[in-house]
TrEMBL record:
Protein name, as recorded: NADP-dependent glyceraldehyde-3-phosphate dehydrogenase
Keyword field: Cytoplasm, NADP, Oxidoreductase
Subcellular location: Cytoplasm
Enzyme class at the top of the EC tree: oxidoreductase
Reaction equation(s) it catalyzes: D-glyceraldehyde 3-phosphate + NADP(+) + H2O = (2R)-3-phosphoglycerate + NADPH + 2 H(+)
Entry superkingdom: Eukaryota
List of catalytic residues: 266
InterPro entries to which the protein is assigned, alphabetical: Ald_DH/histidinol_DH, Ald_DH_C, Ald_DH_CS_CYS, Ald_DH_CS_GLU, Ald_DH_N, Aldehyde_DH_dom, ALDH-related_metabolic_enz
EC number(s) on file: 1.2.1.9
Family assignment from sequence similarity: Belongs to the aldehyde dehydrogenase family.
Amino acid sequence: MAGAGIFAEIYDENTNVYKYYSDGAWNISSSGKSVPIINPTTRKTQYKVQACTQEEVNKVMESSKVAQKLWAKTPLWKRAEMLHKAAAILKEHKAPIAECLVKEIAKPAKDAVTEVVRSGDLVSYCGEEGVRILGEGKFLTSDSFPGNERSKYCLVSKVPLGVVLAIPPFNYPVNLAVSKIAPALIAGNSLVLKPPTQGAVAALHMVHCFHLAGFPKGLISCITGKGSEIGDFLTMHPGVNCISFTGGDTGIAISKKAGMVPLQMELGGKDACIVLEDADLDLVAANIIKGGFSYSGQRCTAVKVVLVMDSVADALVEKVNAKVSKLTVGPPEDNCDITPVVSESSANFIEGLVMDAKQKGATFCQEYKRDGNLIWPLLLDNVKPEMRIAWEEPFGPVLPVIRINTVEQGIHHCNASNFGLQGCVFTRDINKAILIGDAMETGTVQINSAPARGPDHFPFQGLKDSGIGSQGVTNSILMMTKIKSTVINLPSPSYTMG
């Protein structure tokens, strides 16, 4: 049960508020204030977390800096060993963490458990991959460049950046947190986590698993609080040496304020699904349902717009509608396919897009239905470019279909977006798939499958407003290190076996 058993330490029974984590201990903020976490299903306060102060942020940064210096001296094999231990504890205690995900972000129960298990696997994989790639360096000789004799040897290695600030989003507050934590730690950095408000309690439980694994005090911190009070203070703090952020438009503001700090950012998408005449429409329909409606469409890599050739549009829409009618709608505890979206403001935003599409003549394949934060799945056919839903990211179970007459028209719509995270192409012609994929301005193109972030060791990156840098286990580890060169100057040219 959340906040009980081995997790009792993270909860203050006197105030019914979860503690924050710093310097190896669970603490109560000196502010005396808390931040409520609203259950999306009941729309009532489910949990409360500490509203940390700027002074507490300063203390966390100082202890993180000290801990990192010692951690960088810890043998690589030992760092990996501790990550494996944390992963095992995380997976062992998946049930109470999943419970938090159900109540905080209305994630279906089975998907909540899957997220925790997947997160443990990611941590373990990161430990293994870190040993391999960080254990290797380069040896260069000066005579490989014209005009030089072999009088210099260069040893190139990877060293940690320092303090990494990790800011994950609400929709995967555990998985997208560990995707930042594990690479940072294996690379020798310390880690300060600022979890999203919705998802903060699940993140605190996850951090306790790292605490139980025995990581040095001060190495990992978890600061909760209002973004308006500590958000900019954290991201602009001089003690931060790297920022890894996943979320929305806030990331653009962070990137403008961060200065010379290395950034890793994934900021959402409007992932296009281009469907050609020769596509397997049953396969397309299944992937549209999976890609567009899983977790109620609250995924950066969800299918956000279907661009289908007009000659097969009627048949595809009919197949998708048949599958939409079978989606279950209700509370996450019942493992329903469609559960409430994360907040009332999100539901209001989605409704605004739907009403705009209705006013401008879109065809409603289902009746629009909403009850509080719960929005029934809706397919909008005959969507036109002048409709907001054609371009904006709803982050909900509403999917627009735009009928196209040429492949070029579909590519143009995809590339006209300010987003460029992922896209997908459905066709039986691999040559067409490759050519279209190459023309799409997205970080990843999926051929005959819906967009997806995983597996977690695959490179994952966005173009334009979808992000900066690349993620995936290997890329994240490399991004959270810097190159250190040591040049040995010889008294005379050296030629072995000469």
